[in-house]
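Retro notes (design track)

What went well: tokenization of the new backbones is finally stable.
What didn't: we kept losing track of which sequence belonged to which structure.
Fix going forward: every design gets posted as structure first, then sequence, in one message. First example under the new rule, 247 residues:
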């Protein structure tokens, strides 16, 4: 019997700014002449993956990322403010967002609005990297993974606006509002599926290259309030569920 041709899948996981490390991984794959046949991305992985799948040269993507992080648009943005909350760099995203929320003004906002940030800020970020095309028009087949907040399901976006799909995949809950697509309220894909390997299996990809940029759960020294304990429990649960999902 004829041997079935390989279909190389690339899964790019979420992880905030650490996800820009995906660019370095893709550079290595290109150097080794390994070209994925399908790319699936979650959150920041969907931004890097979507840009590359659309035909952006990886060196250009790297330069664009560097220029964005140095730009006034980013330096003065609320997105950066979340990243800088408390001691920032060594804390998990959920802890940084909690610290950001716990000022009187932002806590009041959180009680009456679906998010602290406006969608415009992340939209500018997405537009900076992603062309205004349909997902079906990418050069390398691409899928973005989001979470349906109503049904609790992981959703793979294969059709429609590339920018809007990536926006949904990157909408960190609480920080950014859900994105409505086809009657679904969609939020960050990392809620359920931070490294979207399973979706590549469903695409028939083999072998699969999976890039995780999250890290082991950090030791926590202070749990002073009910909110601290609740958030910490969520971190522990999410960490172990994510480990289980990769088995």
């Amino acid at each position: 019997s004829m041997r079935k041709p390989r279909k190389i899948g690339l899964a790019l996981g979420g992880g905030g700014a650490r996800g820009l490390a995906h660019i370095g991984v893709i550079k290595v794959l290109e150097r080794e002449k390994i070209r994925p046949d399908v790319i699936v991305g979650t959150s920041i992985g969907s931004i890097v993956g979507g840009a590359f799948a659309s035909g952006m040269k990886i060196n250009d993507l790297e330069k664009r990322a560097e220029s964005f992080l140095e730009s006034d648009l980013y330096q003065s943005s609320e997105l950066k403010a979340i990243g800088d909350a408390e001691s920032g760099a060594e804390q998990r995203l959920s802890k940084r967002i909690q610290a950001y929320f716990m000022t009187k003004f932002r806590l009041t906002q959180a009680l009456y609005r679906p998010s602290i940030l406006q969608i415009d800020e992340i939209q500018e970020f997405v537009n900076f990297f992603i062309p205004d095309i349909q997902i079906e028009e990418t050069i390398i087949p691409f899928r973005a993974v989001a979470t349906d907040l109503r049904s609790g399901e992981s959703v793979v976006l294969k059709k429609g606006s590339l920018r809007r799909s990536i926006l949904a995949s990157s909408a960190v809950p609480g920080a950014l509002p859900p994105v409505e697509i086809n009657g679904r309220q969609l939020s960050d894909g990392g809620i359920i599926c931070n490294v979207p390997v399973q979706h590549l299996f469903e695409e028939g990809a083999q072998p699969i290259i999976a890039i995780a940029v999250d890290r082991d759960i950090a030791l926590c020294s202070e749990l002073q309030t009910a909110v601290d304990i609740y958030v910490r429990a969520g971190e522990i649960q999410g960490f172990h569920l994510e480990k289980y999902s990769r088995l």
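Added context from the reviewer: Residues 83-93 have pLDDT under 50 and may be disordered.
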